[in-house]
């Protein structure tokens, strides 16, 4: 079998020969000169890798594609993935194989841990985000979350696209007054056994619940915004584990099994197995009622002292083939027109990242059309936002959770 | 040199090349990081640290045990049910009826069957709805840990109902090759009861033909991700699910441990296969006496009854799952405990079917191309083997099965690297080849035993009448093997339609098929849309299986001798 060995040797060589070659070729555009970017972008095709699990989001991206074609002669291809990790995998494989300039992905919809990991491993192109003509509309000086993704400095490597905030929803036909603090939630679960749960760790929404609980239960949240290595993990997290120990016996299936993800949890709400759940999409519950997924009696709220919120972004891989078009697309996504349409609950319902006082009166009006929807969150609720802890906490929390509850 | 001669000379080598390059680079893409080597992530030192991290993963022993037992138990159950059913009912009308149901059942993708089963049996499922509240008094679904039970019973049930039709199909193709009817007639004439006659006279000849499909079932069941995500336990999950989570972890450093986990998964699957082989030996050794003891009946009635019960339950579960999917695809808001959705709506279908032409035709084109490619290579390799009268070497066979043994999530990373390394543009062609990597082993295992066991005297007879080897192949062997060939093609086509990750990763997401659309939408949790897509997804392979089962009857309506076992 000498052939076999030779081939394996070759493959190992493929794995190792990577990452040594460097320096992308000179760009045909200047970031300082936006006009040159737009010129370079014309006629390019942007391969935009974004989660494809929601028909409404897919339809919005289709609309963006039409606009880009009409305005800039750019073709947008929505590369639908069910987990952005697969796209990260591809970028990584391309880097490992030495493909440094002709990547197959031009734009990625990411944030948080994925961003932190890609930034740490030099898989992103940039800085470019603050050069976008529309970036100042986010009023970054007044809104630091535009420059900090889960407290990791963005440094121009990704451009804000939308906002998320942990939002609770319940079936008002079954729940009169939902719990508004973590201790109330425990008491509620005891009174309503089996009607609440959270997604299985390490699903990001499940991890968010852990972070939310930890932030609400801890007396001093300062260490959570520093890297976890600096903190006394056991001491800081002790209240969380006490709380979960008390909560788990009263969860759905007595905490012996968990839904795989936020969407799975939503199905359980639609089936009536749960009567209280949560999501990261503040206007999601209203949209899902309209889509027949949730009971018409669904109502939304946020916890009394606020809930975790974050911004989601678009980023370009270091080896993107069509960087200019990706930038023009990112800029269009930040335009008042695209942002207003995205926030429209009949289209998607994803809150804007633009600062209303940075807009002209005319631009602002497009955002005012939010009608009253009983299942939607009152607009002022979004002001009670807690910042995401440092991303290094997620891994440690997940590891500790899995050790305690993941292997009964 | 004639096309035939050239073909059979090249086919074995092309087949080996098609599989070995991707598989070896795929494996290298797992082995190297498992031992710490992945410079793109800063891993430039060989180390066992990632294996140590893996050993310390919470619940690892339980994950391994779940994968191992799921593989063995689901294979054993499906095989037993199929064997007993064949034995008790092979020459009855019930058998013909079940046979008709095969093509739609086989076409249901594993994940869709699992979704259907979960919806049927979950606390808010169809069964519970139809009994509530009038019998149970439940206004809201009860809180029962099923599916997702910690022992994996729901997972095993989901696998068994899917594998029974597969093994039945494989048996249908194999029965004529082992002269089942003749054996049965002789045994019945000697006074053996129908089931005993089958178990003693036919099964020992049939099982060797089913061995490879059974191994494939074990390999699939012990490493399944999609079924386990829906029906399996969560704390902890089976190993393959955990490996997928590690691979998809945003923390890229987890890739090292995930690669070690993928190798461990490979070992677990191999261990399950080895155990099965040992059990096979044990049964062979311990039943010799029973086979020849001359007793004409052995609980025929009881075992026949059990077979009937088991196969009815399995079929009923499958059909109700399909019914559940259909209902969901027509539902608006459908609360518990309404047994039927009210009002029925076509909205979900209208929403979904707008841009579906492309994904459906792409899937069909890729499936046909990958199946044809695999079929030509497999037939060429088998024909070469028959002509040279020397079986394929064991190492080559191992290469054939590797794509079934290595968890695809792990092996695809190396494949994408290979693609990037050679600068192969992502697109339709490379997707077809990547599908062929997974299709070819199934085509091979569906066909190999039937091909090898075709009585060589037919060929000799034809040669002695003056036919050239090429003519023997075209006029004698191919027509006689028509049924297994079509079956193998249908299986291959269904495998191709079901591929998600290779399509996504090697097509860089630019090739969208009905399956990539279905999997993406399923991750969004809208069960109505997911149901529509699952039904659309099974339409293509259902057509394939219907053709495979129906065509021979049409082609050979004047040569019914080629249609044995009917």
UniProtKB/TrEMBL annotation, chain A:
Keyword Signal annotated: yes
Keywords in alphabetical order: Signal
Matching NCBIfam families: PRK11622.1
Lineage: Bacteria, Pseudomonadati, Pseudomonadota, Gammaproteobacteria, Oceanospirillales
Entry superkingdom: Bacteria
PANTHER family given in the database record: PROTEIN YNJB
InterPro entries recorded: SBP (IPR006059), YnjB (IPR027020)
Official protein name in the record: Putative thiamine transport system substrate-binding protein
SUPFAM superfamilies per UniProt: Periplasmic binding protein-like II
UniProt signal peptide: 1-28
From TrEMBL, chain B:
Organism: Modicisalibacter muralis
GO terms for biological process, alphabetical: transmembrane transport
Subcellular location per the Swiss-Prot or TrEMBL entry: Cell membrane
One Pfam family recorded for the sequence: BPD_transp_1
Any one GO cellular component localisation term in the record: plasma membrane
Transmembrane segments: 12-38, 68-89, 101-121, 153-175, 252-279, 302-334, 360-382, 394-416, 428-448, 481-501, 530-551
Predominant location: membrane
Keyword Ribonucleoprotein: no
Membrane topology reported for the UniProt record: Multi-pass membrane protein
Record-given protein name: Putative thiamine transport system permease protein
UniProt keyword list: Cell membrane, Membrane, Transmembrane, Transmembrane helix, Transport
Protein family (similarity comment): Belongs to the binding-protein-dependent transport system permease family.
Limits of the ABC transmembrane type-1 domain: 60-275, 360-548
């Amino acid at each position: 079998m000498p052939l076999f060995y030779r081939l394996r040797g070759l493959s190992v060589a493929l794995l190792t020969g990577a990452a040594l070659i460097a320096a992308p070729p000179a760009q045909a555009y200047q970031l300082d000169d936006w006009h040159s970017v737009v010129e370079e972008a014309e006629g390019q095709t942007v391969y935009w890798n974004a989660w494809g699990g929601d028909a409404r989001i897919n339809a919005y991206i289709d609309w963006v594609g039409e606009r880009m074609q009409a305005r800039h002669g750019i073709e947008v291809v929505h590369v639908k993935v069910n987990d952005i990790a697969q796209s990260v995998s591809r970028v990584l494989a391309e880097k490992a194989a030495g493909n440094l300039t002709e990547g197959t992905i031009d734009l990625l919809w990411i944030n948080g841990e994925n961003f932190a990991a890609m930034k740490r491993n030099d898989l992103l192109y940039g800085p470019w985000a603050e050069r976008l003509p529309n970036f100042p509309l986010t009023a970054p000086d007044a809104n630091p979350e535009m420059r900090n993704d889960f407290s990791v400095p963005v440094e121009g490597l990704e451009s804000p696209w939308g906002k998320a905030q942990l939002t609770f929803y319940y079936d008002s036909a079954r729940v009169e007054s939902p719990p508004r603090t973590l201790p109330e939630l425990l008491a509620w679960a005891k009174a309503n056994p089996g009607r609440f749960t959270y997604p299985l760790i390490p699903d990001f929404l499940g991890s968010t619940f852990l972070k939310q609980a930890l932030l609400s239960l801890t007396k001093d949240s300062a260490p959570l915004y520093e890297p976890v290595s600096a903190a006394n993990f056991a001491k800081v997290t002790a209240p969380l584990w006490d709380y979960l120990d008390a909560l788990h016996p009263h969860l759905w299936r007595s905490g012996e099994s968990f839904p795989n993800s936020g969407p799975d949890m939503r199905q359980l709400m639609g089936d009536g197995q749960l009567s209280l759940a949560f999501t990261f999409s503040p206007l999601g519950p209203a949209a899902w009622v309209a889509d027949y997924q949730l009971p018409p009696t669904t109502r939304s709220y946020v916890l009394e002292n606020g809930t975790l919120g974050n911004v989601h972004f678009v980023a370009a891989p270091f080896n993107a083939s069509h960087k200019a078009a990706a930038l023009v697309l990112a800029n269009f996504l930040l335009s008042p027109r695209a942002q207003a349409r995205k926030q429209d609950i009949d289209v998607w319902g994803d809150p804007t990242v633009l600062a209303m006082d940075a807009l002209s009166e005319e631009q602002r009006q497009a955002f005012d059309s939010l009608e009253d929807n009983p299942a939607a969150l009152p607009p002022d609720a979004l002001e009670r936002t807690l910042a995401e802890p440092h991303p290094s906490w997620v891994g440690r929390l997940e590891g500790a959770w899995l050790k305690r509850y993941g292997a009964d | 040199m004639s096309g035939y001669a050239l073909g059979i000379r090249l086919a074995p080598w092309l087949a080996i090349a098609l599989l070995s390059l991707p598989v070896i680079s795929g494996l290298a893409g797992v082995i190297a990081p498992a031992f710490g080597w992945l410079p793109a992530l800063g891993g430039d030192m060989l180390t066992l640290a990632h294996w140590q991290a893996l050993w310390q993963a919470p619940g690892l022993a339980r994950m391994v045990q779940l994968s191992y037992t799921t593989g063995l138990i689901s294979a054993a159950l499906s095989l037993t049910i199929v064997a007993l059913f064949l034995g008790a009912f092979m020459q009855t009308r019930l058998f013909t009826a079940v046979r008709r149901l095969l093509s739609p059942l086989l076409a249901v993708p594993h994940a869709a069957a699992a979704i259907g089963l979960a919806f049927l049996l979950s606390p808010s499922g169809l069964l519970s709805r139809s009994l509530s509240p009038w019998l149970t008094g439940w206004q809201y679904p009860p809180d029962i840990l099923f599916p997702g039970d910690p022992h994996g019973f729901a997972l095993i049930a989901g696998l068994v109902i899917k594998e029974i039709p597969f093994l039945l199909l494989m048996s249908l193709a194999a029965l004529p090759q082992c002269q089942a009817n003749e054996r049965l007639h002789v045994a019945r004439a000697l006074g053996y009861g129908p089931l005993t006659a089958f178990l003693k006279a036919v099964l020992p000849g049939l099982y060797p033909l089913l061995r490879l499909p059974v191994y494939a079932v074990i390999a699939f069941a012990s490493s399944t991700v999609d079924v386990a995500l829906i029906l399996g336990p969560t704390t902890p999950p089976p190993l393959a699910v955990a490996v997928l989570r590690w691979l998809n972890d945003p923390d890229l450093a987890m890739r090292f441990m995930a690669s070690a986990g993928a190798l461990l998964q490979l070992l677990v699957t191999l261990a399950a296969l080895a155990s099965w082989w040992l059990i096979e030996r044990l049964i062979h050794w311990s039943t010799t006496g029973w086979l020849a003891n001359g007793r004409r009946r052995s609980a025929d009635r009881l075992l026949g009854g059990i077979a009937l019960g088991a196969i009815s339950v399995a079929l009923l579960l499958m059909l109700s799952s399909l019914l559940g999917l259909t209902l969901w695809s027509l539902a608006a808001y459908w609360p518990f405990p309404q047994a039927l959705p009210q009002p029925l709506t076509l909205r979900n279908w209208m929403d979904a079917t707008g841009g579906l032409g492309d994904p459906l035709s792409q899937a069909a084109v890729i499936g046909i191309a990958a199946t044809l490619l695999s079929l030509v290579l497999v037939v060429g390799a088998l024909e070469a083997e028959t002509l040279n009268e020397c079986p394929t070497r064991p190492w080559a066979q191992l290469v054939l099965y590797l794509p079934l043994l290595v968890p695809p999530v792990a092996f695809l990373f190396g494949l994408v690297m290979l693609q990037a390394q050679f600068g192969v543009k992502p697109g339709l062609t490379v997707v077809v080849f990547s599908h062929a990597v997974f299709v070819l082993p199934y085509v091979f295992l569906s066909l190999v035993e039937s091909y090898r066991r075709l009585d060589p005297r037919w060929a000799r007879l034809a040669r002695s009448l003056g036919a050239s080897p090429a003519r023997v192949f075209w006029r004698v062997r191919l027509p006689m093997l028509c049924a297994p060939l079509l079956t193998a093609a249908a299986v291959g086509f269904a495998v191709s339609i079901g591929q998600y990750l290779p399509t996504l990763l090697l097509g860089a997401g630019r090739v969208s098929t009905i399956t990539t659309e279905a999997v993406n939408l399923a991750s969004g949790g809208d069960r109505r849309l997911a149901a529509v897509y699952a039904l659309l997804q099974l339409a293509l392979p259902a057509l394939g299986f219907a053709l495979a089962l129906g065509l021979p009857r049409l082609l050979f309506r004047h040569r019914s001798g080629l249609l044995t076992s009917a």
